[in-house]
Design brief:
567 residues; alpha/beta; six-stranded mixed beta sheet; 43% helix
């Protein structure tokens, strides 16, 4: 008994009403169905972002990742299901945007590994692939956070194994897996306090459920793609006074492990497993990968000195980054319109090239003027894909490259691009435009990558970032009551002020930045601000702080009236 290969988006059929084998063309259509259903419900997934340090829109990032995955197989007729799965995984990896997109790409990677070599798959094959997907998604994370997309895919894999023992019908398996994933999603608030506080489910898990639901609807013949558009089924976000983000702030406003510590440990005969276990006991969100000569460490801790001292006891540490996440509890982000990337500047093959991410022609010009070899267009919620960053790396005329993401939600994609390249690539964890500029100012292109990343990492800690923009929602956070449409001010990503006019908010922001102890403040004015207005703002700053030098630079960034850098 064989499966009839369908040539439209109608459901696959076999004699007896069961679907026993999935071919390459059918998997391609399943992927398309998952993409379409996620697209219909993207806005709802976006509304669920509630993490303590959120950055970007989960639904949008997962959608862009799925689009890239499907683009690799669109219009193809490859019959081999293992090859189609591999193409989907490669597309997802190259198009992965934001943290949620990178995790989704790992799920596709695991599925592809589980289906490798298969001309078609049945229920037993798919159960194995689901388990591979869950294992791959968890891999590299020492202490995975339950109550997230990881929990959803893990429970889905367990259900797939049980379904495979009970039936050879792929429809039966997909229905069971979807139901189990939905149940796991509903329990995420019980597993993750921040979700329970916000009264929502996990956004990444919800996105995955929509992808699986689209696939199941295709299998059941309930999803019409080439005909009438499918209406979203997501419920409207609850109309409560506080947003999910506001309700998600930890009780008392304090994170248990407020410091993000990252470094590379260099040595001889290093024991990765032992280092991982020791580091893991110090905090949470542990990632320790490497070999006997070099180990990359990431950990959230109460005291950053503990992991750093341990690293020094084993060898030399470099690329050290210590970030205060407490000061970045909430970041307001807005979509920036696309702007063309500028051409590569001259870099000798023996020099270090820097790739920066920035939105706005003025900011791009600043980075170019300071020596960036290439500027990738992107920024707040306008996250460039892994492939965009990878292509920029590959077109550099040197094998020594440093990437400045300048936004914390671009770091994972930058690291994925680094791992794809055979070049010597380092990612400096710059989380704002002023941080990226401060790092770039230390560039010594004739020195090696390690020396430059070390000085750049130190430079990140020498600058504070202020931002003036307009609120897009009503929210209460950090004791600041914000109304939609009000002017708001952020310092290092943390909401600090709200008011009816720029003057009062600017005063608050400057105070929180403590610029009276700084030497210089640079004002980058946005696309909606005229030069005369920016000059008047600079005059007010000079009047209030006569001992501080003030510079005015056209940034051209969207949505943000001003970005301030203080050193």
């Amino acid at each position: 008994m064989t499966t009839a290969i369908d040539t439209t988006m109608t459901a696959p059929t076999v004699a007896g009403g069961k679907w026993l084998h999935c071919t390459g063309p059918q998997l391609r259509k399943m992927a398309r169905a998952g993409l379409v259903w996620l697209e219909q419900n993207r806005d709802y997934v976006n509304s669920l972002n509630v993490f303590p340090v959120p950055d970007g829109d989960t639904g949008t990032n997962m959608l862009l990742t799925m689009r890239s995955a499907y683009a690799r197989v669109e219009g193809g007729d490859e019959p081999h299901v293992g090859k189609v799965a591999g193409q989907l995984a490669q597309g997802a990896l190259m198009g992965a945007r934001g943290n949620s997109g990178v995790i989704l790409s790992q799920i596709w990677r695991g599925l592809a590994a589980g289906l490798s070599g298969k001309e078609a798959f049945g229920t037993a094959d798919l159960a194995h692939a689901f388990q591979s997907a869950a294992d791959t998604a968890y891999k590299g994370v020492m202490r995975p956070v339950e109550g997230t997309i990881l929990t959803v895919i893990r429970e889905g894999a367990a259900e797939a194994a049980d379904a495979a023992r009970k039936s050879e019908d792929l429809r039966f398996m997909l229905e069971r897996v979807l139901e189990r994933c939905q149940q796991a999603l509903e329990r995420t608030p019980d597993l993750l306090p921040i979700l329970r506080q916000a009264g929502v489910v996990d956004s990444g898990g919800q996105g995955l459920v929509y992808i699986l639901e689209g696939m199941m609807r295709y299998a059941q013949g309930k999803l019409v793609i080439d005909g009438q558009p499918v209406a979203p089924v997501a419920p409207a976000p609850p109309g409560e006074p506080l947003s999910a983000q506001a309700r998600a702030v930890p009780e008392g406003g304090a994170l248990e492990f407020p410091y993000d510590v990252q470094f590379i440990l260099m040595g001889r005969n290093l024991n990765v497993l032992e280092v991982r276990n020791r580091i893991d006991a110090m905090g949470d969100s542990t990632v320790v990968v490497g070999d006997e000569k070099a180990i990359k460490v990431h950990i959230h801790v109460k005291d950053p000195g503990v992991p750093l001292s341990y690293g020094i006891s084993l060898g030399q540490i470099t690329d050290v980054v210590v970030e205060n996440m407490q000061e970045q509890m909430e970041e307001m982000v807005h979509k920036a319109p696309a702007a063309p990337s500028l051409p590569v500047i001259d870099v000798r093959p023996d020099q270090v090239a820097v790739i920066a991410v920035a939105g706005g022609n003025g900011l791009a010009g600043v980075f170019r003027g300071l020596g960036a070899a290439f500027v990738v267009n992107g920024g707040q919620t306008n996250n460039p894909s892994t492939e965009e960053i990878y292509q920029a790396i590959e077109q550099m005329p040197t094998d020594k490259v440093i990437v400045l993401p300048n936004n914390k939600n671009i770091i994972l994609a930058a690291e994925a691009a680094r791992d794809l390249s055979a070049k010597q690539v380092a990612v400096v964890h710059s989380r704002s435009i002023p941080q990226g500029i401060a790092a770039l100012m230390t560039l010594r292109p004739d020195k090696d990558v390690a020396a430059n990343t070390e000085t750049m990492a130190r430079a990140l800690r020498s600058v504070r970032t202020g931002e003036i923009t307009r609120a897009t929602r009503t929210i209460e956070l950090n004791g600041v009551d914000v109304k939609e449409g009000a002017i708001i001010g952020l310092v290092d990503g943390s909401l600090q002020s709200s008011g009816p006019d720029e003057d009062s908010v600017l005063r608050d922001v400057l105070g929180h930045m403590a610029i009276d102890g700084c030497d210089i403040v640079t004002v980058y004015y946005g696309a909606d601000v005229k030069l005369e207005q920016a000059a008047e703002t600079a005059h007010r700053i000079r009047h209030a702080y006569p001992n501080v030098e003030v510079e005015v630079v056209e940034g051209g960034q969207a949505h943000y009236y001003y970005i301030l850098g203080a050193e």
